[in-house]
Design goal:
The chain is an alpha+beta fold. It is built from five helices and six strands. Strands 1, 2, 3, 4, 5 and 6 form a six-stranded mixed beta sheet that branches.
């Protein structure tokens, strides 16, 4: 599924309340599209439980152990996901392919999540591209504000 199809799916799956699909189409999706353009792949593998919950990893800062962040790892290849999980793999977790736009939408939606680390280079589990929720959320808020201003000005001219 290409990025435009992924974004359309988000619109189609939104509550059909007359407002939400329009907000997703005009405020959320343009930002998601810009962020997906920074990534190499249209889908990544994400660990999920049998209930569909994503594996959240808490990372601590070595110098400041009280400083923590919660991340989700997304892998470009299934083999990398399996290697990352290693011998301590939990039988309740499986790496599932997920559309990139949907992963980013979850980053925007899950308040307890700080970032997603996209492991983009096959075979390299030491370096990934991190996208922070605050950065994505800020860009969506800015786009939403512009969209709301546009809608308001269109009402004045109607």
């Amino acid at each position: 599924m290409d990025i435009d199809q992924q974004l359309q799916t988000l619109i189609d799956q939104a509550p059909q309340d007359g407002v939400t699909p329009s907000i997703i189409k005009n405020a959320v999706n343009p930002v998601l599209k810009a962020f997906t353009a920074k990534l190499k792949y249209s889908e990544y593998f994400v660990y999920q439980s049998t209930e569909g919950n994503w594996l959240l990893t808490t990372l601590s800062n070595r110098q400041y152990p009280d400083l923590e962040k919660k991340v989700i790892y997304a892998f470009s290849r299934l083999d990398d996901a399996k290697q990352f999980q290693g011998n301590g793999a939990d039988a309740q977790l499986t790496a599932q392919p997920m559309p990139t736009a949907h992963i980013l939408f979850q980053l925007f939606s899950l308040k307890r999540l700080d970032s997603i680390v996209f492991m983009e280079t096959p075979g390299n589990l030491n370096q990934g591209k991190e996208i922070h929720r605050e950065e994505l959320q800020g860009a969506i808020q800015k786009q939403l504000s512009q969209y709301q201003n546009q809608v308001a000005s269109n009402k004045h001219f109607a």
